[in-house]
Automatic annotation (TrEMBL):
SMART domains, sorted: LysM
Any one Pfam family match given in the protein's UniProt record, by short name: PG_binding_1
Protein name as catalogued: LysM domain/BON superfamily protein
Source superkingdom: Bacteria
Domain LysM: 153-217
Length: 321
């Protein structure tokens, strides 16, 4: 079995590479179901069919020149060259073809993640993840997306700043300019007066004052109502996390209860079973290594912080929040 990857290089030419060392494990996802295939230790086992393959990932290393000629090296290529090519494909979202001989995998994918570290003997240890590529036809007519917002009025208290208000109401202090732009005329007028009163005092254009009433454009919260919410509520109640009314609505009480949950290695219960169902592993109610690995894959796929722990944000994503 060999792995070949073909894609356009920085000069626009097709370049085909052979992965010099077969990874010990290949992790795959087919239509949302995840599995790990132990290639090196057990030989070729139950390799997934290329059809409907949505993710493919592995960890391995590109061998340095000192390993050139060793039996386990398929075909040696300068690791710096391989590393640069993988980074190029990942950075610019290039479509690559992955062909694994001895299997039915011969698919076009995108390099969604690639990280590498140089270690001893100039080996490049790397982690790579590929995601399914689908051709998307875009209409020539431009389309506009509108994000619904609600306007919230807030009276400024002593010690508050635009950054503090942005963190509290918009989720990030970096969004302070959103509040400034929504109240620009009033804020600028007040600061102009203050500069006249105190000509020697340096006053930032973003300064606000106690008693000012600011309008904050807060994104409208999405109404979530589905069977997954109902299922998680039942599981939370059985595990003692909450005493919620079991229905399909995501409520503030449910969110508060969810913030107390962290499904990590060793945890047991109905919520663990719910998480296992969502990540596509056996629902035995115990969070073991396979569950943790599947949670990490789910988090990568949905652009969450990869921790292997099903916390509030991960659970929220699982129920469509």
């Amino acid at each position: 079995m060999d792995i070949y990857i073909t894609g356009k290089n920085s000069k626009g030419n097709d370049q085909k590479i052979q992965i010099p060392i077969i990874p010990e494990e290949i992790e795959s996802s087919i239509e949302g179901k995840f599995a790990e295939y132990d290639i090196y230790k057990l030989g070729q086992v139950s390799i997934p069919n290329g059809k409907n393959l949505s993710e493919l990932s592995w960890e391995c290393f590109f061998p340095g020149e000192a390993r050139k000629g060793m039996k386990f090296v398929r075909e040696w290529t300068d690791p710096e060259t391989l590393d640069a090519l993988m980074k190029y494909w990942a950075k610019y979202g290039k479509v690559v073809n992955i062909c694994i001989t001895g299997t039915k995998i011969n698919v076009d994918m995108l390099v969604s993640e690639y990280d590498s570290t140089i270690k001893s003997l100039n080996d490049y240890y790397y982690t790579v993840r590929f995601v399914d590529y689908e051709k998307i036809s875009v209409s020539s007519a431009s389309t506009k997306r509108s994000t619904k917002t609600t306007k919230k009025k807030v009276t400024v208290k002593k010690g508050q700043t635009l950054r503090k208000l942005a963190k509290k109401y918009l989720g990030s202090s970096k969004k302070y300019k959103v509040i400034y732009n929504a109240n620009k005329k009033m804020i600028d007028a007040r600061n102009k007066k203050e500069r006249k009163k105190h000509p020697k005092k340096k006053i930032s254009k973003y300064t606000i004052y106690k008693g000012q009433v600011l309008v904050i454009p807060v994104p409208s919260s999405k109404l979530v109502s589905n069977s997954k919410v109902e299922e998680l509520k039942k599981a939370m109640n059985k595990d003692g996390y909450s005493k919620l009314k079991v229905d399909k609505k995501l409520t503030s009480s449910m969110k508060s209860a969810m913030k107390k949950i962290t499904i990590r290695t060793g945890r047991k219960g109905q919520v663990v079973k719910f998480v296992q169902k969502m990540v596509g592993v056996k629902q035995d109610g115990t969070c073991g290594s396979k569950t943790v690995s599947a949670i990490k894959t789910y988090q990568r796929k949905h652009k969450l912080t990869v921790t292997g722990v099903a916390d509030y944000k991960t659970l929220l994503k699982m129920i469509g929040g």
